[in-house]
Design a protein that fits this description.
The chain contains 6 helices and no strands. The chain is an all-alpha fold.
């Protein structure tokens, strides 16, 4: 979380992410290499998903192909509750963490 916060708030890559998310055409016209940055964002997304899968597999001591199935709605809900726009350009890592804490608290309260 700290690394992603640093990348998104203190580097050119983070500025490019918010710019492209806000308006792709304006970002392209201002000289940001949109296609290259999108490829970089997808690579970062894949690496973080792989890291999460490794951590979860290590925690449970086994792996199945459908281990994370059904978690998508919880992730989207936590992101939106944290204040990230589904249309891009607005959001932050800290607010997303708050959204995750809220969702996990609700989930724990509803299940137990």
């Amino acid at each position: 979380v700290i690394v992603m916060w640093f990348i998104l708030s203190k580097t050119r890559l983070g500025f490019n992410a918010y710019s492209i998310g806000g308006n792709r055409e304006v970002a392209r016209l201002s000289g940001i290499p949109v296609k290259l940055n999108i490829v970089i964002f997808y690579c970062i997304s894949g690496l973080t998903a792989a890291l999460a899968a490794i951590v979860q597999t290590a925690r449970l001591d086994f792996a199945t192909p459908n281990r994370g199935q059904g978690m998508e709605l919880w992730v989207i809900a936590a992101t939106v509750i944290g204040g990230t726009s589904m249309f891009g350009g607005v959001g932050g890592v800290g607010r997303t963490v708050i959204g995750v804490i809220i969702i996990k608290s609700l989930q724990a309260g509803l299940i137990h």
